[in-house]
Amino acid sequence: MATDVQSLYEIGKNSPEEHVSLAYLADIPKYDLEKPYAIEFDIPLENESFRSNLEFESSIVSIRDLRLRKEKIRLEEHGFEVVDTASSFEHDYFRSEAPICEMQDVESLLKERFETEQVFCFTQRLSSQQSPCRLHDRKRFWKPIHHTVKNHPLIFCDRATLSEAQIIPCDLVSPDYLGGFSFVKYSEGQQWYWLSNQEVDEAFIFTSWDSHPLYEPPFLQSLFTRLAYLRIQILIYPNAKVWKTKDGY
Fold first, then answer.
1. Listed GO molecular functions (predicted)?
2. Domain assignment of residue 3, yes or no
């Protein structure tokens, strides 16, 4: 475990830099008067234009490569980190017992990393979608499925450069409840990072937005195309102990 805690800026300031275009919630006067929203159920065709008031815009950002400094990144300090894992699966792994094995492998890895006996993995899926910056506060385990990542890598924003004013709450309207999520507005001060050539035995653990896409605005990234990842949501209970009876239960 790293002992010299540095900011992401200090870690990545001399790293190679790329420029890409990302989609953000548009910074427009409309949202001063009405809250962003999206309706998630069927509505009459004549009312389809009212399904959502979400609008997006693209901005060019620079991203720095943390490949040579990945061991300095810590989930506790930076919101994400890279861990080594021996697991790798092909696209058809859902047809076997592999999902159960993968969950167990991930739980074992995280128990060792966080020195705890309580880790709960759930709702794993394949993901190959892009979406605008949409936030949910939960931990995720994310890794490529079958080969080195050459296109569409994950990128991470330094949370120290993201202000509360740039996180815009939105309503998600369903027939049974009113939910919520958040989108990010662009700011010149935001700093972004990535890991070049991510291998199948390299996984990210991170606190992140939910990348299930409600809407897919046009993306201008020349660097990013679609690529399949395995993603698993996780709950980690630091320093937890498992209590057992004398019979082992």
1. oxidoreductase activity
2. no
Establish if 242 belongs to a structural domain.
Answer: no
Determine the distance from the C-alpha atom of residue 100 to the mean position of all C-alpha atoms in its chain, rounded to a whole number: 22
Tens digits of residue pLDDT in 189-211: 999 999 999 998 898 988 765 43
The tens digit of pLDDT for each residue in 56-113 reads: 999 999 999 999 999 999 988 998 999 988 754 544 444 444 555 567 777 788 888 8
Residues 6 or more apart whose Cβ sits within 8 Å of residue 245? none
| Residue 43 located in a structural domain | yes
State the DSSP code for 69: G
Q: Which domain holds residue 143?
A: 16-237
Q: Which of 206, 186, 142 is nearest to 21 (CA)?
A: 186
The answer to pTM > 0.85 is no
Residue 43: count of CB within 10 angstroms of its CB: 12
List, edge to edge, every strand of the sheet that includes 155-157.
17-25, 56-65, 192-194, 155-157
Token pair 């949202």 is found at 31
